[in-house]
Amino acid sequence: MKIKAQHWLTLIFLSLIWGSSFILIKRGLEYFTALQVGALRITLAGIFLLPISIPNIKLMPKKRFPWLVLTAVCGSFIPMFLFPIAEEHIHSSMAGILNALMSVFVIILGVIFFKYKTHTGQIIGVVLSFTGVILLLQTSSSPVGVSGEYIYYLLLIFATLMYAYSGLLTQKYMGKINPIIWTAFIELILLIPGLIVLISTGFFARVFQSTDALKGLFFIFLLALFGSVLANIYYYKLIAQTNATFASSVSLLMPLVAFGWGIFDKENLGALQIIAAVLIIAGLYFGEKKISFFKK
Question: How many other CB atoms sit within 10 Å of the CB of residue 181?
Fold first, then answer.
């Protein structure tokens, strides 16, 4: 399907929202534990979409229900906890940068498990963009918070792997279901598990005992409303209108936004980071070009 201007605008819109989610997670962690941040985000998203999910419950696809559950677990449940856990030890800008691996995983998983066809332009685009990500990692403003704890890098990489797999599942099994309803069903499935985790971690006692917790609640409210509900709707819509590879390109723009928030927090931007930004954008451009080096 031809990529139109509106698809690029949606991609930029998503990158702004999701690129800002890492700083919101960081702010939320100032008031709550990692498990509470993840569970609160899931619970609020489920509550926000109840007016859509409950009236349309009959439209939930029975044959695709197992895949819907798997999409919910991989794309919403697991990453919602892994990112806050990692950000307790790794800077938010680092989390945003590593999230760019999602585009790489979409191509790899797509080829291995979904018989996904790729072309030279996509490979060149991913290489260029990921090279830009590597350059961003060289900045002194994104060190690991606790020296030597590389397990948190692995948690973020696994989370991006789950995001990629979820996007491919959506492309294959969402079919003609409205992306808004598909998102509502996903959040409905996770509402009870999220609420159970929230209660078991003593969240409500924390809220009633501390007035400062209300500030943290505001940050997670924004994270759930924009980062989970609104962004997921447009992301699944973008997959339906284009494909999982193009939609996952949002992960290559997100590091720029996440790094921008780092600058806002008085982090320095050098020539190396500017070059990295150019490479990431160039990768997006080449990713949509079907390049052939040999003529038949």
Answer: 20
Cβ burial of 47 (10 Å; 0-12, 13-18, 19+) is: middle
Q: Secondary structure of the chain: what % helix, strand, coil (to 5)?
A: 75, 0, 25
Tokens 């030890």 correspond to 89
- The answer, as to whether pTM is greater than 0.85, is no
Exposure on the CB side of residue 219, measured as CA atoms within 13 A:
20
Q: Residue 282's CB: how many other CB atoms inside 10 A?
A: 16
Tens of pLDDT, residue by residue, the chain (296 residues): 678 889 999 999 999 999 899 889 989 999 999 999 999 999 999 999 999 999 999 888 888 899 999 999 999 999 999 999 998 888 787 788 778 788 788 888 888 888 777 777 778 877 887 787 777 666 544 444 444 557 888 898 899 999 999 999 998 898 888 999 999 999 999 999 999 999 999 998 888 877 788 888 999 999 999 999 999 999 999 998 888 878 888 877 887 888 777 777 665 556 776 787 778 777 767 766 665 544 44
Measured distance CA(281)–CA(296) in Å, rounded:
30
Q: Which region, left, alpha or beta, applies to residue 118 given φ > 0 means left and ψ of -120 to 50 means alpha? A: beta
CA 170 to chain centre: 14
**CA–CA dist 32, 277 (Å, integer):** 33
